[in-house]
């Protein structure tokens, strides 16, 4: 069963997990230290000026905006309204009536006042939760636990908050009980979790409070803008320098949980096949036999420090998969930290030549997991440095020699990378011309274009995308679609159409000796050559897969204060092809008819449906028998569909959570599942080739007649 957000997590910045040192736990910070410093006042003033002048979204620091900042700050601290009382919030709102003027002057007293109250409320709630843990729990009574949110009314008094926490602690206990933990283990684990929450909040320094508040400020403008304190800036530099070592995962905070945002191609996390975007990390252990440490409620940077470690060392993660409803959804994944080499991220190809619908046709598929470029080798003057475009060009050459009739470029899960590579890769399929437009905060538009004459492949082309295809992937797919060069197949893409840059705030106060930190600033937006942005909407496929119905609240569309979709004037370009509406209708109908009978797609749709059900669930039973029955029902639904699909492929289902796993059989199972959509994309392209050949033949016959 899906764990819902319950706790606090202040750090909104995503961090790469890479090699590094685990930091010693700091001592509690006295409340008397939690007041703004003169340096923070100066920093706030500089941030105001930089944001107002350079941020892509123009905004005014007026009273309405300041109140939105306050609301966001309270949401960051207490997203489920589990700590503050209504009277606390009323006092905060009264004290923040002049917040716009206070922010202009860099006055931060209200932010620190709120945090001091928050810290006291956390101590009160943890004390109450620990007292509840000492008592009995009755899981036979018919009652439910409602998942709170920022829409839940603030508790009127302590008694109302006590009742919410009674059910919350009971929910936590039942969730671990359903995972077959013993009563003693459950109580000890939750005791450590609750005590750890209070301990970490007591360790917040003034710098942490300032970053949290300024994070709420920047998030009120737009989700990709954030402030990095001097300490966070230093950690960021370390992670960037070592970003190709570790487990290969980018993490983010989702209230109390650490969530996998993406995995790096070639990294241990992705190679394991057991960690997917959206999965939650519940625990971390060192080595093969180290104790599993519960990390629910931890700050993101603390979880990062636990997962970091030297190359070759072992880390074990307790993972709760996003897309299952299993009665035992939590699994333990063992990873060996490793260097992520460029060749591990490299594009790969394979051939499909056994399509029953198109005998004799050969469709080549090239998987492009990232838009990579070996800048270090290029800077050193190496003539043969690795890049996406170079590798794909070679793969195309090899596939053409094998006599392919069509080509599919698979961009599923590709979160982007080098803009130069997205432009150059597009150039393999068009002669010359614009690829993407970039508009900055001052309205200036620059055009990135392919200026290299000639093409590497002129034949029928399709591009396969999904909800995780982002940024550079969207630029490439949009250009192929705008030129009419190929079919776009799959799901609407992520919708990340903005450009960020890092700004050192000390450059605006060159005589300031203290480090002011940095600002990650959204300063430009990508636009298609046809004029529309890739922001928010992403790229809409020409032919949608049925899983697309579950994408509405995913990616940029799910982020608060995301920049809206907009458009500018089209660039000057000449379409090189056209997909006739009648052909598109035929392809869509044929694909839909196949998919309706395809057990693989039934499995994929069921997995997406289960994830959606869990996301939309508003409350859950606290009666053990009801929970077990519901968990078993959901688990069986997915299990039945997966087994039905695997049998059609002649594969015996492999239980990934079993003590002894046949790794070879498991790899075959994962590959079969990964290729469900790719094979249908190949069938669609084959249909297109045959239909167009048929149409051409009929036209020639008519001309002869």
UniProtKB/TrEMBL annotation:
Chain intervals with Basic and acidic residues compositional bias: 616-646
PDZ domain residues: 237-284
Alphabetized GO MF terms: endopeptidase activity; serine-type peptidase activity
Signal peptide: 1-24
GO terms (BP aspect): proteolysis; signal transduction
Keyword vocabulary terms for this entry: Hydrolase, Protease, Serine protease, Signal
Highest taxon in the source lineage: Bacteria
Presence of the UniProt keyword Signal in the record: yes
InterPro entries (alphabetical): ClpP/crotonase-like_dom_sf, PDZ, PDZ_sf, Peptidase_S41A, Tail-specific_protease, Tail_Prtase_C, TSP_N
Gene3D superfamilies for the chain: 2-enoyl-CoA Hydratase, Chain A, domain 1, 2.30.42.10
A single GO cellular-component term on record: outer membrane-bounded periplasmic space
UniProt KW Signal keyword: yes
Disordered: region residues: 616-649
PANTHER family given in the database record: CARBOXYL-TERMINAL-PROCESSING PEPTIDASE 3, CHLOROPLASTIC, TAIL-SPECIFIC PROTEASE
Recorded family membership: Belongs to the peptidase S41A family.
This protein's name: Tail-specific protease
Species of origin: Caldichromatium japonicum
């Amino acid at each position: 069963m899906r764990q819902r957000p319950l706790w606090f997590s202040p750090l909104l910045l995503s961090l790469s997990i890479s090699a590094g040192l685990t930091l010693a736990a700091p001592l509690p910070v006295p409340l008397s230290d939690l007041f703004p410093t003169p340096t923070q006042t100066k920093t706030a003033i500089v941030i105001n000026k930089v944001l107002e002048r350079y941020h892509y979204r123009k905004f005014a620091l007026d009273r309405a905006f300041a109140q939105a900042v306050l609301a966001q700050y309270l949401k960051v601290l207490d997203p489920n309204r589990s700590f503050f009382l209504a009277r606390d919030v009323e006092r905060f709102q009264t004290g923040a009536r002049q917040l716009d003027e206070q922010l202009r002057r860099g006055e931060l007293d209200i932010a620190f006042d709120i945090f001091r109250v928050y810290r006291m409320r956390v101590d009160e709630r943890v004390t109450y939760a620990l007292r509840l843990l000492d008592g009995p729990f009755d899981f036979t009574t018919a009652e439910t636990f409602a998942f709170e949110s920022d829409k839940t009314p603030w508790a009127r008094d302590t008694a109302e908050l006590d009742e919410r926490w009674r059910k919350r602690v009971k929910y936590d206990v039942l969730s671990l009980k359903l995972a077959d933990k013993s009563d003693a283990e459950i109580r000890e684990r939750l005791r450590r979790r609750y005590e750890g929450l209070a301990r970490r909040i007591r360790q917040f320094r003034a710098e942490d409070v300032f970053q949290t508040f300024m994070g709420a400020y920047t998030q009120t403008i737009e989700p990709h803008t954030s402030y990095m304190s001097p300490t966070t800036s230093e950690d960021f530099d370390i992670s960037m320098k070592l970003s190709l070592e570790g487990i290969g995962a980018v993490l983010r905070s989702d209230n109390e949980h650490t969530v996998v945002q993406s995995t790096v191609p070639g990294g241990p996390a992705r190679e394991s096949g057991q960690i997917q975007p959206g999965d939650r990390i519940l625990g971390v252990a060192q080595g093969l036999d180290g104790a599993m440490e519960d990390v629910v409620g931890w700050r993101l940077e603390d979880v990062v420090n636990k997962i970091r470690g030297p190359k070759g060392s072992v880390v074990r993660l307790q993972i709760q998969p996003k897309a299952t409803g299993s009665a035992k959804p939590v699994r333990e994944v063992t990873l060996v930290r490793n260097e992520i080499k460029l060749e591990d991220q490299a594009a790969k190809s394979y051939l499909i030549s056994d399509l029953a619908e198109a005998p004799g046709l050969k469709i080549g598929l090239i998987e492009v997991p990232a838009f990579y470029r070996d800048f270090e080798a290029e800077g050193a003057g190496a003539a043969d440095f690795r890049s996406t475009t170079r590798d794909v060009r070679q793969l195309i050459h090899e596939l053409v020699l094998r006599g392919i009739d069509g080509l599919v470029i698979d961009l599923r899960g590709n979160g982007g990378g080098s803009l130069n590579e997205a432009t150059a890769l597009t150039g393999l399929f068009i002669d010359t011309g614009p690829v993407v437009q970039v508009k900055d905060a001052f309205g200036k538009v620059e055009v990135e274009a392919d200026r290299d004459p000639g093409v590497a492949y002129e034949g029928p082309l399709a591009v396969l995308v999904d909800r995780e295809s982002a940024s550079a992937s969207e630029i490439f797919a949009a250009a192929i679609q705008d030129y009419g060069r190929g079919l776009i197949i799959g799901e609407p893409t992520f919708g990340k159409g903005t450009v960020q840059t890092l700004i050192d705030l000390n450059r605006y106060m060159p005589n300031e000796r203290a480090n002011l930190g940095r600002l990650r600033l959204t300063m430009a937006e990508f636009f298609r050559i046809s004029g529309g942005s890739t922001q928010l909407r992403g790229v809409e496929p020409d032919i949608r897969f049925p899983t697309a119905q579950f994408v509405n609240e995913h990616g940029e569309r799910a982020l608060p204060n995301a920049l809206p979709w907009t458009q500018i004037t089209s660039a000057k370009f000449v379409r090189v092809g056209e997909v006739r509406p009648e052909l598109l209708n035929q392809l869509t109908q044929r694909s839909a008819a196949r998919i309706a009978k395809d057990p693989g797609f039934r499995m994929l749709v069921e997995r997406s449906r289960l994830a959606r059900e869990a996301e939309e669930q508003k409350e859950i039973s606290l009666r053990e028998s009801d929970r077990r029955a519901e968990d078993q029902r959901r688990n069986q639904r997915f299990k039945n569909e997966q087994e039905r699909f695997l049998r059609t492929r002649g594969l015996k289902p492999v239980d990934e959570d079993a003590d002894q796993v046949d790794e070879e059989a498991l790899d075959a199972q994962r590959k079969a599942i990964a290729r469900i959509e790719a094979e249908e994309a190949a069938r669609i392209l084959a249909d297109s080739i045959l239909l167009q050949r048929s149409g051409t033949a009929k036209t020639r016959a008519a001309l002869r007649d």
